[in-house]
Design a protein that fits this description.
The complex is a heterodimer of chains A (444) and B (172). Chain A is mainly β. In chain A, 10% of the residues lie in helices and 41% in strands. The longest helix of chain A has 17 residues. The two termini of chain A are 21 Å apart. By secondary structure, chain B is of the alpha+beta class. Chain B has a single domain, classed as OmpA-like domain (60s Ribosomal Protein L30, Chain: A, 2-Layer Sandwich), CATH 3.30.1330. Helix content of chain B is 41%, strand content 16%. Chain B has 5 helices and 4 strands. Chain B has a 4-stranded mixed β-sheet with strand order 1-4-2-3. In chain B, strand 2, helix 4 and strand 3 form a beta-alpha-beta unit. In chain B, helix 3 packs across helix 4. Classes of the chains: A mainly beta (444), B alpha+beta (172). At the A-B interface, strand 16 of A face helix 4 and strand 3 of B.
Amino acid sequence: MMERVKTFFAAMVAALGLIFAAVGAASAAPLRIEITEGVIEPVPFAVPGFVAESTGAEEWGARLAQVVADDLTGTGLFRQIPASAFISRPTSFAAPVQYADWKAINAQALIMGAVAVADNGRLTVKFRIYDVFSGQELGKGLQFQGTTDGWRRMAHKVADAVYSRITGETGYFDSRVVFVSETGPKDDRKKRLAIMDYDGANVQYLTDSQSIVLAPRFSPTGDRVLYTSYATGFPRIHVLDVGSAQSRILESQSGTMSFAPRFAPDGRTVVFSLTQGSNTDIYSMDIGSGGAQRLTNTPGIETAPSYSPDGSRVVFESDRSGSQQLYVMPAGGGEATRISFGQGRYATPVWSPRGDLIAFTKQTKGRFHIGVMRTDGSEERLLTASFLDEGPTWAPNGRVIMFTRETQGASGQASLYSVDVSGRNLKRVRTPGGASDPSWGPLQ
Amino acid sequence: MKLTTKAVLLVGALALAACTNAGRFDNADSVNLNDQPGSGAGGAPGFDDPSSPAYFQQAIGDRVLFAVDQHTLSAEARATLDAQANWLAQNPDYSAVIEGHADEQGTREYNLALGGRRANAVYEYLISKGVSASRLKFVTYGKERPIEICSEEACYAKNRRAVTVIAGSVTS
């Protein structure tokens, strides 16, 4: 089952500087999307099927171009021009670009790719991006090699390059999401840990459905996953090695229940909730030594901790004021500052990887929302509203949030959704069945 | 101010408990009948046998209900727990696991903690009535194990519960 994970291709990214001379001064290219601007007119792009440079590569050329197009279109920032509108159909990767043909159909960006499949089954993929209206190449051509198993990753890397060169932001397409796969009716739900590409492809199951599993969280490098499992009969934090799918209990204080774990940016420290008696507090622990430190000390429920990207602070929820609100404290514990003051209850805060925002779940007037606020609690914005939205997780570039949406009623089911931090582009993420508790991993 | 809120909530809890027919006997999923000492394989559990887990579940009442976001025990809940403590005193071979639950109207982590509070409230109460702590464990399921699946208060009221699940004999 884990074969694909273990043999995942080692992406070889090489600038094609020796093979191709970079054309023009790419830094002067005017094609640019400012993501922070209020209203965005999607940039029209053309991505012809990647040119086959070996026999048997045609099929790969079409599939690669499709994934690149889906990635870009899925952001809401780009609009694909259908191939039926094309005037010229490139048959050679090296031939000069006929800019007039692409201008005529208003393709502002042109993505040209080529693919070859070697006798040993390895794919070589190369691409160039053109700013059609300025008649220049945008950045330099790149080449990847890998096994056919990794073909989608190569397409995602192409799309990441396009996204990055046009928006100035890092991309997020070559990333994975760990989540809880759900099957069965509401009163007999089976839950399994699963991992997939950010777009729902390549789903693999990491646990069976014998025990309830909850809220997996990727390590900063994506090599491990923390999650809560009832394998012992009690909720306990486990840590799973993604490559081998082997897991172990993280801590074993008897008579206690632990949940809501998250890695620190150093990948060694874990912060989590521990219930003792009626009280739930936040602790941190060195994952190697097992040495734990208590960070909160009130009779309330303190849970859902999340580190700032620099590791210096922890945002968490507490009902110490009488209802769930968000607080920030130093990573070593100490005085906590309340940052949420609006009406309703605030929960599951997650610090943006950019450090500028905190995403959260808000419950008010019988509805649930995913929202964001600045780290001091100002400029709160609600991005979604439904019967039950919860558990936001950030794309590695901090521009998109994925979360769980559960529908109402006896046939209610959980699904994953994503939304831009601007509130635009709300959409369902494709999963094989029900799905909840996403955790978005790093750019690979 | 705090006291007023509590009083209002308590009244709310009593009203809910009164109208939701907490004593319905059709939710038999919480007792693992396979683990009962002395019960015949596949046979009907001994409801007539006052020392059977089935009797505990159905005649004594294995669960107590809670108001929204609360873990305080109502008068009715305390009466049920008094009877549970009495049964446990008379049947010292059994241990019990108290399972705390929440309705779906809350975030996952908070509901885990809330279910823990509810289970702990029952745990502490039973101990205060003389049940040995060594016979009791408690666990939270948060909102993971609803018994009623509609998204209305009638279902939520039954899901906000702590269930005392009789486990196998302590000595076995």
